[in-house]
Specification:
295 residues; Rossmann fold; 6-stranded parallel sheet
């Protein structure tokens, strides 16, 4: 079995989903006894456009070892078309021996925009997390939760603002965790929280909602599903392939409230339909792909 090193400066605290996933993946590799220092590694896993100088230096030092690129995006689709980070991804990918895309949508859109990415062996592995699943009956107001560590307007703020103005707050409560560019009227803004705090808050709610556009593999959606929350998600990006039967899709302000009512009606069925991977299974999938490629 290949020994692995992740080229990533893991951060503690309220950082984005990529950091949280890579921290958990590293911890899982440590538990499995395959995580090692760079000098002992058979495989280096690097992420998107980050740590590019470190990637280049390690490739110089260990040219015959395997380098695997974890890719999301295209970032231009959920940010703006002038975003140069996708170009950086394509540039550093020249050093890779294989690519892990975070969703089928991400692979298809990335290759459509950058056909050279199809020249390397690739696979699709969704993110994962190990959070304790809970079962809870609806009691009193129905509690909704959303999470975004980014204040990018494409992270769903148009929809959340619509709900803030139009949702029946005698029937619902709505908590938002993260960085919001909007000052809510009735949504409860909880601000930034640590990963453990986010998990506890999600577990105390009934339904998760995300309206992010062109999101390749939402870590917060996976976390919410993992604790047992059926999800109402915008029909965009990698959301449909992640949610499967664990919730419902909506298309915009015209149907979000109707779909929310429908999800409540079928909540038990959706909760039973939740199907997300564990960190153990996901780590095994990474290791299997590492074994398939050549340095």
């Amino acid at each position: 079995m290949d020994k692995v090193n992740i080229i990533w400066n893991v951060k503690d605290g309220p950082f984005g989903g990529g950091n949280q996933f890579l921290k958990r993946l590293k911890d899982q590799f440590v538990l499995m006894g395959v995580y090692v220092d760079p000098s002992e590694a058979d495989v280096f896993l690097f992420n998107s456009h980050h740590e590019m100088e470190s990637v280049r230096e390690l490739k110089r030092l260990y040219p015959h070892k395997k380098f695997v690129h974890r890719v999301d995006g295209p970032m231009r689709l959920y940010n703006h078309m002038d975003d140069k980070r996708d170009d950086m991804v394509v540039s550093i990918n020249e050093l890779s021996d294989g690519i892990v895309f975070q969703s089928l949508w991400s692979r298809e859109e990335s290759i459509r925009m950058y056909p050279s990415l199809s020249e390397k062996p690739s696979t699709v592995i969704h993110n994962a997390c190990d959070l304790k699943r809970r079962q809870k009956e609806l009691n009193g107001k129905i509690r909704l939760a959303s999470v975004s560590m980014s204040d990018n307007v494409n992270k769903g703020y148009e929809i959340y603002s619509y709900l803030d103005e139009n949702m029946d707050f005698d029937k619902y409560e709505f908590s938002f965790i993260g960085r919001s560019p909007v000052v809510w009227k009735r949504i409860n803004d909880l601000g930034l929280k640590t990963p453990n705090e986010v998990a506890d808050i999600l577990a105390a709610h009934d339904i998760f909602i995300t309206a992010s556009k062109n999101d390749p593999c939402s870590n917060s959606l996976i976390e919410a599903l993992s604790v047992g929350l059926p999800a109402l998600v915008l029909n965009s990006g990698g959301h449909p392939e992640i949610i499967k039967k664990g919730g419902m899709l909506f298309n915009g302000t015209e149907d979000v409230l109707g779909k929310l009512e429908e999800l409540i009606q079928y909540r038990d069925c959706c909760e039973k339909g939740i199907d997300v991977s564990t960190m153990t299974k996901t780590a095994i999938m990474y290791l299997a792909f590492f074994g398939e490629i050549k340095g």
